[in-house]
Design a protein that fits this description.
globular, mainly alpha, 400 residues, Growth Hormone, Chain: A, 15 helices
Length: 400
């Protein structure tokens, strides 16, 4: 059910605007993938797997940023939090552009993640201000359906920029997107958190809300599930360039294969927006988790018998099925975790985002850094994390 009788702007424009603001995170990850090797070589990275840190450190920035932006948006409003987030992201891009060392690049990427946490976390709270339950899941699925176009085209965009310029052009593109997003958002989106509903910021009050959220079994359970399954996806992001571009020798065709997998994810989120109203979030999430566990349990021994290098077409089928299931998961998991937290949406969104992202970063880095020239670490990660997620989902639902 919609909380407000009427959105300030048409629903289609609202969905498009939120998808654009939300897409900063995806673009800042996926457009970088074709450039990882070039950046790491030019700036003097010590080891081949160190290039993955350009992605991983971005997520660490998101973890710390969410801790600030959630409570800040509950006390000062949604729009100021997003403005500050974009400003920090902008500064981080400039630091990366003018970096002359690998450590300087990582510092800039950390700032980008810190700033991107603002749009990422506050958009969810802004949506929660206006929608709840299955309707929120439906709106989130619409937004993710548009948002998923970014990972489909972002690697190709990054690759195209590398053809005509060096890797710094990618960061200039980030700056342009930031300017467009802030301009559209400032003129068209109204503040959704009325002054009467704002919660004055204080460490004691924030700690009290965190204890309340942490004691909500449904929220905690689905937050952990979100983190574990995001970890499997982050493991793929960390190692996808090495697996597809180097191990399988795709070279400049890497963005095409990456886009095919992203399309599978996007198609699932689009279908989810229709199916969630009929079947409910729990049924779809549970079915998706079981599907990932089964296909991973079958593909892992198959890959092991081929020394971790199965034919490319089998890997693509496995990943397409897995990503389709992930697409059914993420919009539902977020809505399930947020469902009991309408009265503290900003802090709740920050708590869920920071805890789940921390879990995801740790597990994703573990999977990525375990890359050994085979796909076995990646498939093992999907298998183990999906089984753990099923256990946590049962624990969460037992608390209803």
């Amino acid at each position: 059910m919609t909380k407000n009788t009427k959105l300030a702007i048409p629903l289609l424009e609202f969905v498009a605007l939120m998808a654009l603001v939300f897409s900063v995170v995806a673009l800042a990850i996926d457009a970088m993938l074709p450039a990882l090797e070039e950046i790491s070589q030019e700036l003097g990275a010590a080891h081949a797997n160190d290039a993955q840190l350009i992605i991983s450190i971005f997520f660490f920035g998101i973890v710390f940023g969410q801790v600030f932006f959630g409570p800040f948006s509950d006390s000062r409003g949604r729009k100021p939090a997003i403005y500050i987030g974009f400003a920090v992201f902008f500064i981080g891009c400039l630091v990366s552009i003018f970096s002359t060392s690998f450590s300087g690049m990582l510092a800039g990427r950390f700032l980008q993640g810190l700033g991107a946490a603002g749009p990422r976390i506050v958009v969810v709270a802004l949506i929660r201000d206006q929608f709840e339950g299955r309707e929120m899941a439906r709106v989130m699925s619409f937004i993710i359906s548009i948002f998923i176009l970014v990972p489909i085209v972002a690697p190709a965009m990054g690759q195209a920029l590398l053809i005509v310029a060096d890797w710094r052009a990618i960061f200039y593109a980030f700056l342009l997107l930031t300017i467009i997003s802030v301009t559209w958002f400032s003129f068209r989106q109204e503040e959704t958190l009325a002054p009467a509903h704002r919660i004055p910021f204080s460490p004691r009050r924030v700690a009290g809300r965190v204890r309340e959220i942490g004691g909500t079994r449904v929220t905690m359970g689905y937050t952990v599930v979100t983190g574990l399954m995001s970890g499997s996806f982050f493991g793929y992001l960390n190692s996808s360039q090495q697996i597809l571009q180097l191990q399988y020798g795709l070279g400049k065709m890497f963005p095409v294969y990456f886009a095919i997998l992203a399309f599978s994810f996007g198609l699932a989120t689009l279908l989810n927006s229709r199916l969630v109203v009929r079947f409910g979030m729990q049924v779809l999430a549970g079915t998706a988790l079981v599907s990932i566990a089964i296909v991973s349990g079958v593909f892992l021994p198959f890959s092991w018998t081929l020394a971790g290098h199965p034919p490319l077409w089998t890997l693509m089928i496995y990943l397409m099925v897995s990503f389709f299931a992930l697409g059914m998961l993420f919009g539902n998991l977020n809505a399930l975790a947020m469902e009991p937290l309408g009265h503290v949406a900003g802090t709740g969104s920050a708590f869920i985002g920071s805890v789940s992202t921390l879990i995801a970063v740790v597990t994703g880095v573990l999977i990525g850094q375990s890359y050994n020239g085979t796909i076995l670490p990646l498939v093992t990660g999907f298998a183990v994390l999906s089984l753990l997620s099923l256990i946590m989902m049962r624990w969460a639902e037992a608390g209803r």
